[in-house]
Amino acid sequence: MTSSSATRQTGFLQRAFTAVIQWFDSDHTPGGADKMRAEEDKVDWVRCIPFIILHAGCLGVIWVGWSWFAVWAAVALYFLRMFAVTGIYHRYFSHKTYHTSRAGQLFLALWGATTVQRGGLWWAYHHRHHHQHSDHEEDAHSPHIHGFLWSHIGWITSRRNFPTDYSKVKDLAKYPELVWLNRFDTVVPAVFATAIYFLGVALERFAPGLGTNGPQMLIWGFFISTTALFHGTACINSMAHLMGKRRYNTTDDSRNSFILAIICLGEGWHNNHHRYQSCTRNGFYWWEIDPTYYGLKLLSWTGLIWGLKPVPQSILDEGMRAEHAASVAAAQKAAVIHEHSPFKKVVPAAAALAMATVNTSSAVAPKKADGPAVQRDVTEQTNPSPAKPQQPNPPVI
Ligand SMILES: [Zn+2]
Ligand SMILES: [Zn+2]
Fold first, then answer.
1. DSSP string spanning 327-371?
2. Most exposed residue of 52, 85, 119, 219, measured as fewest CB within 10 angstroms of its CB?
3. CA of 29 to the centre of ligand 1 (A)
């Protein structure tokens, strides 16, 4: 073995050892977090192991089977925890769109940690960074810059995206309990998975009619539900900048999508959110379904949270103006396409015949209300003189 290959092997082992420790202590960054953030942006295969375990765990369904209780538990835990991603990690930790007490904040952080999407501070740091650099080179998960797969899952495995930059979340980092949960971010998921397992064990013993047990609840309630939750959330990073319509002319390519709004409990109104991040709702109108906002409204009635921030009227007005301008532009574009369609090329010939008939037989002149039979532009292009109408057409809007 040459000395260079031995050095490479030692380096790999050191990195692998560090990655294993980081599963238990995410603030363990030998050499400093800044150095890690400056590394090359690429997949770290050791960091992929938890993802592989999570996905492979879903295959356990082959051995544990299913029951209605386990399936519905998986669905319920998906939505309860999607609410935690959107209503807590996103709309509270990242954007502070409502208020809560310190105890309430800890409760929300614990709820958020069950999502297995690392700590609230890491999540908020990366999300704020995304808003600062959306769809530009520095954006860690732009599908336009880095491609679909990288924006969906690859970026999380990169070592440079691993450490939390506490200087970017100072408002959260001043609470030691939040920093602890962020640092030891596998504790809550481990407790959560264990609790689900023992719930299944208890149900098998005390409610055998439900047909479930510990391993079955672990596979459905934790592995399948969490894997679906991960991909549902990741769709916002990968798809919400590709799929849907744009109401606001933001500097990124964020979009509004009804389908993503259903999958992610209202986060699909991503273009609205990129335009104005400080309000509690992402769906700006009643028809823009935003279940996270409804849930937060319900929580505000319990007193756990308060001070939900509305959408400013100026932002709504701006959206209406932008939509009006877009519909006018679309109509004009449609008119141009119509003018150049193959069908239109036939019309001038028919019009020329009609006009010739009128001139020679002194037939009844067309009434003004009927309007010209021929679009002026096309007539000019194909047959400038005989069929040219006297009056210009009204604008087609
Ligand atoms: Zn956001
Ligand atoms: Zn975005």
1. HHHHHHHHHHHHHTSHHHHHHHHHHHHHHHHHHHHT-PPPPGGG-
2. 52
3. 27
Whole-model pTM above 0.90? no
pLDDT band at 379 (very low <50, low <70, confident <90, very high): very low
Q: Does residue 146 sit within a domain?
A: yes
Q: What is the distance in A from the centroid of ligand 1 to the CA of 222?
A: 26
Asked if residue 342 and residue 219 are part of one domain, the reply reads no
Total domain count for the chain?
2
Supply the range of the domain harboring residue 106: 10-238
* Mean of the per-residue pLDDT values of the chain: 86
pLDDT tens sequence across 324-376? 988 888 888 887 766 665 555 555 555 554 554 444 444 434 343 333 333 33
Give the ligand at the shortest distance from the Cα of 255. 2
Which of 188, 223, 238 is where one domain is finished? 238
Q: Which residue reads 């004009």 in tokens?
A: 332
Assigned domain for 292 exists: no
